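Q: What would this chain look like folded?
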Amino acid sequence: MDEKITSRENAKIKYACRLASSGAFRRSEGKFLAEGRKLCPELCRGAALETLCTMRPSVLGASATLLILSDTKTIDQPRALAAVREAKRQAGRVIFLNPIPEGKWKYIRSVQTMASVCPMVSCSTLRELASACRRLTKEM
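A: My prediction, written as structure tokens:
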């Protein structure tokens, strides 16, 4: 069942706030928080992953799983592919959460290219996203 967040007292909101405010907590949880004036514009132009890899955050190591929520569509496919390969070098696992319905993946070259480099999970609906998160949590 989908949960509607109605209060700042919600456990998920508190967790996100704690991640945002405490580096020690992020390290203990093995999480990385990306936000701000630098990453957000780069995300819009497709360079966020490249920037993240350049930053080399301490939580991005052999035991880390990096989840990329992306439809894989980009203007600069070779650059994006190089960034994914670098992310794979730095992290233990890299998995794409793709919002495009899985039935359309075979028609999109960038999806096929990225799927050849790392696993791709369908999340074209909130239900699929929740299911993917549950599956991935069990695998970790």
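The longest strand covers residues 93-98.
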